[in-house]
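hiii, so i know i said id send this last week but things got crazy w the move. better late than never?? heres the sequnce for the chain we talked about at the cafe, plus the structure i predicted for it. fair warning i was half asleep when i ran it
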Amino acid sequence: MELSESVQRGLQSLADPSAFDQTSFPALVDVSFQSLLSSHGDPAVLDQPQLKQIDQILLKQSHAAAVTLILEAVKQNADKSTVSSCLEELTFSAERIEIFCGTYQRHKKELEHLLTSIGTQPPRVNDVSWRLQYHMKNGQLDKVNEPFYLISLNTETKGTPEDINFTCTVEQLQDLVGKLKDAAKSVEKASQM
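okay and structure toks below
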């Protein structure tokens, strides 16, 4: 796994028994996983009694580095041996590697679910309906005599249905159809590469 220098320094501090003893190391590992899995992002998560004696700057650097490693491992779908070898390179003891990897294995599925839920996806169009209408007069009682289309897109975003409604003139509809055809061709070309 590729990790930045600051993340590596934070993890090396976490590996140092003089900085994190036998009680503070597992506490920080647990806190790192819980801070990712908690829905409210509690800023007091580092206020554990086992972490009180540690320098706050060192604690925050090590916490950020541990969280970065966790997210990177989950993102790459790293198994226990990959995480273990990464920690070995950062001078973690076998006992600390076992603690970290055990916690990683316990929470990996939850974290995968969390990462897949992040981000936005454009809505998927399920159906289109349209209706042709004709403007005869506008609000100032001037004659307009123009056709226009009422378009309704039935879409779905993450299982939630939603209707998108808009109106357009004949020229705007022709432009929309042309752009949709161009987009379809681009997607087809990209899928063939």
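btw The chain has two domains: 5-117, 124-192. thought thatd interest u
miss u guys!!
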